[in-house]
Amino acid sequence: MAQSQDSNRDDSNKANSKKKKTNKTTNENINQSIRKMVPWGIGTFIIILLIILFFLLKNFNSPEAQAKIFVNAVKNNDTQRISNILSTRDNKVGGDEAETYIKYIKNEIGLKKFDKELNDTVHDIDKKNKDAGYIKTPDGNNILRVTMNGRRYIFFDNIGFSTETKKAIIKKKAKTTYVFRTDDKKRKVIAEPNETTMLGYFIPGDYKIPATKETDNGKFVGYLTFSFKGSNSETVDVHENFPEANLNIKLDGADQLDSKHTKVKINGKQFSYDNTKLYGPYPVTDEIEVSAEGKVKGKTFKSDTLKLYPNELKENTPVRLKFEKDKIDKYVKEKEKEENSLKNKVNKFFNKYTSALNTAAGANNFSSISNFLKPDTDNYKTMKQSFQNGQGAQSMMQSPQVTDVSQDGSDIYAKVANINSQGFWVTSKYKLEDTSKKDGDDSDLKIISNQE
Fold this sequence. Notes:
It is built from seven helices and 23 strands. With 452 residues, it is α+β, with helices and mostly antiparallel strands. The protein folds into four domains: 62-162, no CATH class; 166-241, no CATH class; 245-323, Immunoglobulin-like (Sandwich); 334-451, Nuclear Transport Factor 2, Chain: A (Roll), CATH 3.10.450.
């Protein structure tokens, strides 16, 4: 019985041992199969990843994808992306310019039409082997240039985007200094008088740039404006939009003042007066002080002084300055009385001088007129030499008429019309010395100079 049990135990052990061997062999076979499958699995996984990566790259790098990125940047007002796309080594596009460019596309073309035209252009370049294509505004200006620009990641065509730039120019009559921001930087430009001045290069857009300008009349705050719309040249004209005051000055009581010598003074600077002229422009933020002065018969008269405050200033600001008319009229009346007396005095002198001159010329005798001339002057020496040379007859004159006369101290200035020795009317300017003590006494008048 015991022997039988031992025999059964041995058989059982053998069976278990055999089973273990079989399981071990099976496990080894399975492991070998798995090891053989791992490289294939890894390879397949890598291939799937590469396929996914390819399609991802295609979505972001194909010509169509690049066009979509540009359109989305315009749609979403992404000024940073537009700035990066359009900036070049020579021309950096700032955020403000990019914003203006985006608005210009939307206003001039429209987003939907721009999207379609850009994709059509990209398709033509990519599929039809064109070098470049353009997106244009309705008035024919190029707003975007699309070009083939090599390849990306070996597989994809690379599309380049660029836009034209134009010079913004301005021409001023007076020296003007502008300060404004462009390319995200502060700029200062000085425009010299009557010269075309460039403010910078700009990409397409309707621009309204905050700026200050400074002239001899002060500092202004406003805008510089210009537009690419309708511009068919390499430049665009800049216009100013600054609140300004111009002065329309009228004078009361200045009727008798000499218009040639009437001046207006604005903030300490003097200008010739013209009642049809607007004076300016001046800043509307500063006070302006205005006055006037004029001459009549050698005397200067001044008007009242007005101070204009910012709340009074506008594009056409009326200004009325007043002179003391009564004082001017009184002075003119007195002066005319003196002038009539002086004119009579000079008339009497020239009547006597003409008679003596003609007598001297007939006899060629200088001594007959020497008492009428101031000795040792150039005129005295010339006349004496003329008579000594036998040319005294050339000095003859007829019918002298004093047309204008004035006096400054002992000097008298007279314009005298007469008929010369050739029979022609001529007007001569004389300077005389008056040493007489009595009004109307012409005995002490002496000719200092004479000029026709």
